[in-house]
């Protein structure tokens, strides 16, 4: 499950193994017959909740411009909740919860005005992380503490449903936590499903607050699988978040030969940019620490088919508006980018346009409404 302490390079992990031991367990899952609906009270009224995390940055970041933070964060969550209800076909009895840190009283009041459950979380000391963003991602640890629910469906704030999410709610998971690999990580932390646990929360909380991680030895000296070393690019370079600019990202791009090898043999590389924060912490806690009663990497090989695709992140279910394509970063520059324009069309041209009047978003989200008008003006030109 992990490298020996004196070994630091192992390029890829077999994706087939991941599917066999994790996703194929879905064949044994049973569908719930309960009526699907969104909670209309502030208090927990469901066994299931969709959850996202919000934090207010101290200064301008790639996620938010500092002078636009008053309604952007809560209104992004509000529209996500509305979209899950309307597009995802989830109605009155399924909760939607925001775990937050650093929000103002007015921001919290706006969320609660739309009957969104708000839970105060805790961002760990940023000084023990390589950068503030890595510390901020550990706010997701508090999601594990929501033991009033039997199941949590976590989504990042920049993800919006494309189609019905009824299967997300109906499918019972066998695992304590379930996530999907991507080319750069075995635990994609922008979308995951888990069973909340006080025991696991305390363990993850300790990991977040102490941060027993090094690029050389991984978590608790259990080893870390690194990217292959290339000219001008090594694991430390990546871990320190220096690939945020396009120039550095190109420098650290994996060779075509490497990518083809992973694709040909259905492999995914294990070293990922946030191995020292949320992705790595959840991966360690649920797969290596032995704290999880049912490992996500465990399971029977007997299942030849599985129902996991109904849960899996992808264009069929979610539009992930990642990076500079986050809708609240809309500008002439982003609209001239093909991927960002696609995101803007869906967010502003479909979701915001459809629900701004029905849910009074135009009244309570003036900054977002202004960005919507900017989008319309840009289209006219």
What does this structure look like?
- This protein has 14 helices and 12 strands.
- Mean pLDDT is 75; it is low at 1-42, 225-250 and 295-308.
- It has 381 residues and is α/β, with parallel strands linked by helices.
- The protein starts with 11 loop residues before the first strand and ends with a helix.
- A 6-stranded mixed β-sheet has the order 4-3-2-5-8-7, with helices on one face. Strands 1-11 form a two-stranded antiparallel sheet. A two-stranded antiparallel ribbon has the order 6-12.
A few lines on this structure:
With 381 residues, this protein is an alpha/beta fold. It has 14 helices and twelve strands. Helix 2 runs parallel beside helix 3.
